[in-house]
Design brief:
By secondary structure, the chain is mostly helical. Helix content is 70%, strand content 0%. The longest helix is centred in the first third of the chain and has 15 residues. The radius of gyration is 18 Å and the shape is elongated. About 5% of the residues have low confidence.
């Protein structure tokens, strides 16, 4: 009940339920529809339904194993379900993030959780070069 209220109160009104229903109907007809799998997985990510996002992103990876964006999508789903080893494996090698990619954050954090601190520092440093975190302390005292 609470989950339904949160969905209904989250703008735009009922968006997630409509998207989920539409995509599930489409996938019943064609379970390998890449566009629908992409939309549904991203919708689940947006609404913090990470296990569901992971399920559909894994299917996408089977269908499109060489698309960098699919690797990134699945790595975020793994990250948010505390699968740090899988996150690191997916983002290293052929699909290593470029220096400006936000995935450097996920990779750095995953390495930190895995106890690989040198790698964690390297990727977090790379992320910080291009993604400056907000200074919440200044905001709190009214100077931002």
């Amino acid at each position: 009940m609470i989950e339904l209220l949160l969905v209904l109160l989250t703008p735009p009104f009922g968006y997630f339920l409509k998207v989920e229903k539409f995509c599930k109907r489409k996938l019943q007809r064609n379970p390998d529809d890449v566009k629908v799998l992409w939309v549904l997985s991203n919708a689940y990510m947006d609404y913090q339904k990470y296990p569901e996002a992971q399920k559909h992103a894994e299917k996408l990876l089977q269908l499109r194993p060489h698309e960098k964006s699919v690797h990134y999508l699945l790595s975020r789903a793994y990250f948010h379900t505390d699968k740090y080893q899988e996150t690191a494996e997916l983002l290293t090698g052929e699909y290593l993030p470029s220096e400006k990619d936000g995935e450097n954050y996920y990779l750095g954090y995953a390495f930190m959780k895995l106890g690989q601190y040198a790698e964690a520092i390297a990727y977090m440093t790379q992320w910080l070069k291009f993604h400056k975190p907000k200074d919440y302390a200044l905001q709190c005292i009214g100077h931002a």
